[in-house]
Fold:
Amino acid sequence: MSLGPLMIDLRGTAIEADEREWLASPLVGGVILFTRNFESREQLTKLVADLHGIRQPPLLVTVDHEGGRVQRFREPFFRLPPFRALGRLYDEDPAAALKTAASFGWLMAAELRAVGIDMSFTPCVDLDLGLSEVIGDRALHAEARVVAALARRIAAGAKRAGMATTAKHFPTHAGARSDSHTEFAVDRREYEELADDLLPYRELIANGLHAVMIAHVSFPRVDETPASLSKWWIEDRLRGALGFSGAVITDDVSMVGAAVVGPVEERVKRALDAGCDLVLLCNSPEAVPGVLDAMKGYVNPSAQLRLTRLHGRGGLAWDALHASAEWRKAQAAIAPLCARPALELEG
Structure:
Protein backbone atom coordinates (compact mmCIF):
# COMPACT_ATOMS: atom_id res chain seq x y z
CA MET A 1 0.00 0.00 0.00
CA SER A 2 1.36 3.44 -0.92
CA LEU A 3 1.04 6.73 0.95
CA GLY A 4 -2.11 8.62 0.05
CA PRO A 5 -2.59 12.38 -0.38
CA LEU A 6 -4.50 13.13 2.86
CA MET A 7 -2.99 13.86 6.28
CA ILE A 8 -5.32 13.91 9.29
CA ASP A 9 -5.01 14.37 13.05
CA LEU A 10 -6.15 12.53 16.19
CA ARG A 11 -8.54 13.56 18.93
CA GLY A 12 -6.45 12.44 21.90
CA THR A 13 -3.49 10.52 23.28
CA ALA A 14 -4.37 7.18 21.67
CA ILE A 15 -5.86 6.05 18.35
CA GLU A 16 -9.65 5.71 18.43
CA ALA A 17 -11.45 3.00 16.45
CA ASP A 18 -12.79 5.27 13.68
CA GLU A 19 -9.40 6.98 13.37
CA ARG A 20 -7.69 3.62 12.93
CA GLU A 21 -10.14 2.79 10.15
CA TRP A 22 -9.41 6.10 8.38
CA LEU A 23 -5.66 5.64 8.74
CA ALA A 24 -5.89 2.24 7.09
CA SER A 25 -7.28 3.85 3.93
CA PRO A 26 -4.88 4.01 0.95
CA LEU A 27 -5.98 7.63 0.55
CA VAL A 28 -4.30 8.63 3.83
CA GLY A 29 -0.58 9.30 3.95
CA GLY A 30 0.04 10.43 7.48
CA VAL A 31 -0.86 12.08 10.76
CA ILE A 32 -0.04 15.47 12.25
CA LEU A 33 0.17 15.57 16.05
CA PHE A 34 -0.80 18.42 18.37
CA THR A 35 -0.38 19.26 22.06
CA ARG A 36 -3.59 17.38 22.85
CA ASN A 37 -1.90 14.19 21.64
CA PHE A 38 0.99 14.56 24.11
CA GLU A 39 0.84 13.38 27.72
CA SER A 40 4.34 12.09 28.35
CA ARG A 41 7.38 11.01 26.39
CA GLU A 42 6.55 7.35 27.00
CA GLN A 43 2.95 7.79 25.85
CA LEU A 44 4.07 9.71 22.77
CA THR A 45 6.64 7.07 21.83
CA LYS A 46 3.98 4.36 22.03
CA LEU A 47 1.48 6.43 20.04
CA VAL A 48 3.99 7.02 17.24
CA ALA A 49 4.92 3.34 17.19
CA ASP A 50 1.23 2.41 17.00
CA LEU A 51 0.73 4.80 14.10
CA HIS A 52 3.73 3.40 12.24
CA GLY A 53 2.47 -0.13 12.84
CA ILE A 54 -0.90 0.37 11.14
CA ARG A 55 0.39 -0.34 7.60
CA GLN A 56 3.36 -0.61 5.27
CA PRO A 57 5.02 1.57 4.19
CA PRO A 58 4.46 3.33 7.52
CA LEU A 59 2.34 6.44 7.68
CA LEU A 60 4.23 9.71 8.00
CA VAL A 61 4.00 11.04 11.55
CA THR A 62 4.56 14.79 11.71
CA VAL A 63 4.26 17.80 14.01
CA ASP A 64 4.67 21.58 14.06
CA HIS A 65 7.67 21.88 16.37
CA GLU A 66 9.37 25.15 15.43
CA GLY A 67 10.15 26.54 18.86
CA GLY A 68 8.71 29.48 20.78
CA ARG A 69 4.90 29.56 20.72
CA VAL A 70 4.76 26.87 18.03
CA GLN A 71 6.19 23.88 19.89
CA ARG A 72 3.61 21.16 20.46
CA PHE A 73 5.58 19.03 22.90
CA ARG A 74 6.95 20.55 26.10
CA GLU A 75 8.90 18.99 28.97
CA PRO A 76 10.92 16.77 28.81
CA PHE A 77 11.54 18.13 25.28
CA PHE A 78 13.97 21.03 25.21
CA ARG A 79 12.11 24.36 25.18
CA LEU A 80 13.34 25.92 21.96
CA PRO A 81 13.34 29.71 21.62
CA PRO A 82 11.42 31.41 18.78
CA PHE A 83 13.28 31.76 15.51
CA ARG A 84 13.56 35.52 15.98
CA ALA A 85 16.17 34.83 18.68
CA LEU A 86 18.47 33.40 16.01
CA GLY A 87 17.97 36.50 13.88
CA ARG A 88 18.82 38.79 16.78
CA LEU A 89 21.95 36.78 17.44
CA TYR A 90 22.89 37.12 13.77
CA ASP A 91 22.76 40.91 14.08
CA GLU A 92 25.31 40.66 16.92
CA ASP A 93 27.50 37.79 15.70
CA PRO A 94 26.73 36.21 12.31
CA ALA A 95 29.18 33.33 12.68
CA ALA A 96 27.81 32.38 16.10
CA ALA A 97 24.23 32.57 14.80
CA LEU A 98 24.92 30.27 11.87
CA LYS A 99 26.60 27.75 14.13
CA THR A 100 23.74 27.94 16.65
CA ALA A 101 21.14 27.53 13.88
CA ALA A 102 22.73 24.21 12.90
CA SER A 103 22.60 23.10 16.55
CA PHE A 104 18.97 24.27 16.73
CA GLY A 105 17.96 22.16 13.72
CA TRP A 106 19.86 19.14 14.95
CA LEU A 107 18.52 19.22 18.52
CA MET A 108 14.92 19.79 17.42
CA ALA A 109 15.07 16.91 14.94
CA ALA A 110 17.11 14.55 17.13
CA GLU A 111 14.61 14.74 19.99
CA LEU A 112 11.67 14.12 17.67
CA ARG A 113 13.47 11.24 15.96
CA ALA A 114 14.15 9.75 19.41
CA VAL A 115 10.39 9.21 19.84
CA GLY A 116 9.94 8.07 16.23
CA ILE A 117 8.45 11.20 14.63
CA ASP A 118 9.34 11.49 10.96
CA MET A 119 9.21 15.21 10.34
CA SER A 120 8.53 18.64 11.81
CA PHE A 121 6.99 21.25 9.51
CA THR A 122 9.85 23.72 9.84
CA PRO A 123 11.59 26.09 9.20
CA CYS A 124 9.32 29.08 8.73
CA VAL A 125 11.09 31.27 6.15
CA ASP A 126 8.58 34.12 6.02
CA LEU A 127 10.39 37.45 6.29
CA ASP A 128 9.90 39.61 9.38
CA LEU A 129 8.07 42.49 7.69
CA GLY A 130 6.18 43.49 10.84
CA LEU A 131 2.78 42.99 9.18
CA SER A 132 1.66 39.44 10.00
CA GLU A 133 0.87 38.77 13.65
CA VAL A 134 0.47 35.04 13.02
CA ILE A 135 4.09 34.98 11.86
CA GLY A 136 5.58 37.50 14.31
CA ASP A 137 8.56 36.03 16.18
CA ARG A 138 8.36 32.86 14.09
CA ALA A 139 10.28 34.80 11.41
CA LEU A 140 14.06 34.50 11.45
CA HIS A 141 14.86 38.00 10.19
CA ALA A 142 13.68 40.86 7.98
CA GLU A 143 16.46 40.38 5.40
CA ALA A 144 16.01 37.59 2.88
CA ARG A 145 19.71 36.72 2.67
CA VAL A 146 19.86 36.27 6.48
CA VAL A 147 16.71 34.12 6.51
CA ALA A 148 18.17 31.96 3.74
CA ALA A 149 21.52 31.56 5.50
CA LEU A 150 19.98 30.63 8.85
CA ALA A 151 17.38 28.33 7.27
CA ARG A 152 20.08 26.45 5.36
CA ARG A 153 21.90 25.78 8.63
CA ILE A 154 18.70 24.67 10.40
CA ALA A 155 17.98 22.31 7.50
CA ALA A 156 21.52 20.92 7.58
CA GLY A 157 21.24 20.23 11.30
CA ALA A 158 17.89 18.49 10.90
CA LYS A 159 19.21 16.39 8.03
CA ARG A 160 22.15 15.25 10.16
CA ALA A 161 19.64 14.05 12.75
CA GLY A 162 17.71 12.08 10.11
CA MET A 163 14.85 14.47 9.36
CA ALA A 164 13.61 16.02 6.12
CA THR A 165 13.00 19.76 5.94
CA THR A 166 9.78 21.61 5.10
CA ALA A 167 10.03 25.32 4.27
CA LYS A 168 6.89 27.38 4.84
CA HIS A 169 4.66 29.25 4.04
CA PHE A 170 5.17 29.46 0.24
CA PRO A 171 5.22 31.91 -1.42
CA THR A 172 4.93 33.98 1.78
CA HIS A 173 2.57 34.86 4.62
CA ALA A 174 4.67 37.87 5.60
CA GLY A 175 2.74 40.46 3.60
CA ALA A 176 -0.77 39.47 4.71
CA ARG A 177 -2.04 41.16 7.86
CA SER A 178 -4.90 38.69 8.27
CA ASP A 179 -4.38 35.29 9.89
CA SER A 180 -5.35 32.64 7.31
CA HIS A 181 -6.47 30.38 10.18
CA THR A 182 -9.44 32.67 10.89
CA GLU A 183 -9.74 35.12 7.97
CA PHE A 184 -9.20 35.41 4.24
CA ALA A 185 -5.56 36.44 3.89
CA VAL A 186 -4.53 38.74 1.04
CA ASP A 187 -1.17 40.11 -0.09
CA ARG A 188 -1.63 42.87 -2.69
CA ARG A 189 1.96 43.10 -3.89
CA GLU A 190 2.97 42.56 -7.50
CA TYR A 191 4.94 39.41 -8.31
CA GLU A 192 8.12 41.44 -8.83
CA GLU A 193 7.79 42.77 -5.27
CA LEU A 194 8.00 39.20 -3.88
CA ALA A 195 11.58 38.56 -5.03
CA ASP A 196 13.01 38.82 -1.52
CA ASP A 197 10.28 36.57 -0.09
CA LEU A 198 11.13 33.89 -2.66
CA LEU A 199 14.91 34.08 -2.20
CA PRO A 200 15.04 31.64 0.79
CA TYR A 201 13.13 29.09 -1.30
CA ARG A 202 15.54 29.49 -4.20
CA GLU A 203 18.51 28.83 -1.96
CA LEU A 204 16.95 25.96 -0.03
CA ILE A 205 15.79 24.29 -3.26
CA ALA A 206 19.34 24.58 -4.62
CA ASN A 207 20.46 22.76 -1.47
CA GLY A 208 18.01 19.85 -1.87
CA LEU A 209 14.87 21.02 -0.02
CA HIS A 210 12.59 18.05 0.69
CA ALA A 211 9.15 19.70 1.10
CA VAL A 212 7.32 23.00 0.90
CA MET A 213 4.15 23.98 2.75
CA ILE A 214 1.83 26.23 0.72
CA ALA A 215 0.05 29.19 2.30
CA HIS A 216 -3.68 29.90 2.11
CA VAL A 217 -2.85 33.45 1.01
CA SER A 218 -4.26 35.14 -2.08
CA PHE A 219 -2.12 37.40 -4.29
CA PRO A 220 -4.77 39.09 -6.46
CA ARG A 221 -2.23 41.02 -8.55
CA VAL A 222 -1.06 37.67 -9.95
CA ASP A 223 -3.80 35.12 -9.13
CA GLU A 224 -7.01 35.57 -7.11
CA THR A 225 -6.93 31.92 -5.98
CA PRO A 226 -5.15 31.19 -2.68
CA ALA A 227 -1.66 29.90 -3.43
CA SER A 228 -2.50 26.51 -1.90
CA LEU A 229 -5.14 25.98 -4.57
CA SER A 230 -3.35 27.67 -7.45
CA LYS A 231 -1.77 25.75 -10.32
CA TRP A 232 0.01 28.95 -11.33
CA TRP A 233 1.83 29.17 -7.99
CA ILE A 234 2.53 25.45 -7.64
CA GLU A 235 3.19 24.20 -11.17
CA ASP A 236 4.33 27.39 -12.91
CA ARG A 237 6.29 29.18 -10.18
CA LEU A 238 7.34 26.57 -7.60
CA ARG A 239 8.00 23.57 -9.82
CA GLY A 240 8.70 25.47 -13.04
CA ALA A 241 10.51 28.73 -12.31
CA LEU A 242 12.11 27.59 -9.04
CA GLY A 243 12.76 24.00 -10.12
CA PHE A 244 11.37 22.37 -6.97
CA SER A 245 11.09 18.57 -7.20
CA GLY A 246 10.13 17.70 -3.61
CA ALA A 247 6.77 17.26 -1.89
CA VAL A 248 4.19 20.06 -1.96
CA ILE A 249 2.04 20.15 1.17
CA THR A 250 -0.93 22.37 1.97
CA ASP A 251 -1.51 24.15 5.21
CA ASP A 252 -4.66 22.94 6.98
CA VAL A 253 -7.58 23.12 4.51
CA SER A 254 -10.07 23.54 7.35
CA MET A 255 -8.64 27.07 7.80
CA VAL A 256 -10.79 30.00 6.71
CA GLY A 257 -8.15 31.07 4.21
CA ALA A 258 -8.96 28.02 2.06
CA ALA A 259 -12.75 28.30 2.35
CA VAL A 260 -13.09 30.66 -0.61
CA VAL A 261 -13.61 27.71 -2.98
CA GLY A 262 -16.37 26.02 -0.98
CA PRO A 263 -16.75 22.96 1.28
CA VAL A 264 -13.76 20.99 2.48
CA GLU A 265 -14.19 18.23 -0.11
CA GLU A 266 -13.86 20.84 -2.86
CA ARG A 267 -10.81 22.39 -1.17
CA VAL A 268 -9.06 19.02 -1.12
CA LYS A 269 -9.91 18.38 -4.77
CA ARG A 270 -8.74 21.85 -5.83
CA ALA A 271 -5.46 21.48 -3.93
CA LEU A 272 -4.70 18.13 -5.57
CA ASP A 273 -5.69 19.42 -9.01
CA ALA A 274 -3.37 22.39 -8.49
CA GLY A 275 -0.42 20.06 -7.91
CA CYS A 276 -0.25 19.46 -4.17
CA ASP A 277 1.05 16.06 -3.05
CA LEU A 278 -0.33 16.08 0.50
CA VAL A 279 -3.36 17.89 1.93
CA LEU A 280 -3.66 18.58 5.66
CA LEU A 281 -7.12 18.28 7.20
CA CYS A 282 -7.02 19.12 10.90
CA ASN A 283 -9.52 19.63 13.74
CA SER A 284 -12.39 18.40 11.59
CA PRO A 285 -12.88 14.67 12.30
CA GLU A 286 -16.51 14.91 11.20
CA ALA A 287 -15.31 15.84 7.70
CA VAL A 288 -12.91 12.93 7.20
CA PRO A 289 -15.41 10.26 6.02
CA GLY A 290 -16.88 12.60 3.40
CA VAL A 291 -13.46 13.65 2.15
CA LEU A 292 -12.31 10.03 1.84
CA ASP A 293 -15.48 9.19 -0.05
CA ALA A 294 -14.98 12.15 -2.42
CA MET A 295 -11.37 11.11 -3.08
CA LYS A 296 -12.13 7.50 -4.06
CA GLY A 297 -9.99 6.35 -6.95
CA TYR A 298 -7.42 9.13 -6.66
CA VAL A 299 -3.88 7.97 -7.45
CA ASN A 300 -0.70 9.97 -8.06
CA PRO A 301 2.39 7.71 -8.28
CA SER A 302 4.81 10.66 -8.47
CA ALA A 303 3.37 12.16 -5.29
CA GLN A 304 3.57 8.80 -3.54
CA LEU A 305 7.28 8.59 -4.30
CA ARG A 306 7.91 12.14 -3.08
CA LEU A 307 6.06 11.45 0.17
CA THR A 308 7.94 8.22 0.84
CA ARG A 309 11.18 10.22 0.82
CA LEU A 310 9.96 12.20 3.85
CA HIS A 311 10.27 9.30 6.29
CA GLY A 312 12.72 9.87 9.12
CA ARG A 313 15.99 7.96 9.11
CA GLY A 314 18.00 6.69 12.05
CA GLY A 315 18.34 8.53 15.32
CA LEU A 316 19.40 7.76 18.88
CA ALA A 317 17.10 6.47 21.60
CA TRP A 318 16.02 9.18 24.06
CA ASP A 319 18.35 8.29 26.95
CA ALA A 320 21.35 7.77 24.69
CA LEU A 321 20.66 11.08 22.96
CA HIS A 322 20.51 13.05 26.19
CA ALA A 323 23.66 11.38 27.46
CA SER A 324 25.57 12.28 24.31
CA ALA A 325 28.21 14.98 24.14
CA GLU A 326 26.56 16.40 21.01
CA TRP A 327 23.24 16.96 22.79
CA ARG A 328 24.97 18.70 25.69
CA LYS A 329 26.90 20.87 23.26
CA ALA A 330 23.77 21.81 21.29
CA GLN A 331 21.81 22.54 24.46
CA ALA A 332 24.59 24.77 25.73
CA ALA A 333 24.64 26.68 22.44
CA ILE A 334 20.88 27.32 22.37
CA ALA A 335 20.19 27.88 26.09
CA PRO A 336 21.47 31.50 26.15
CA LEU A 337 18.84 32.43 23.55
CA CYS A 338 16.11 31.08 25.83
CA ALA A 339 17.34 33.22 28.72
CA ARG A 340 17.05 36.54 26.89
CA PRO A 341 14.34 38.95 28.07
CA ALA A 342 10.91 38.32 26.58
CA LEU A 343 10.75 41.92 25.36
CA GLU A 344 13.74 41.33 23.07
CA LEU A 345 12.21 38.16 21.62
CA GLU A 346 8.71 39.47 21.03
CA GLY A 347 9.52 42.67 19.12
Observations:
- Confidence is low (pLDDT under 50) at residues 342-347.
- DSSP finds 13 helices and twelve strands in the chain.
- The first strand starts at residue 6 and ends at 8.
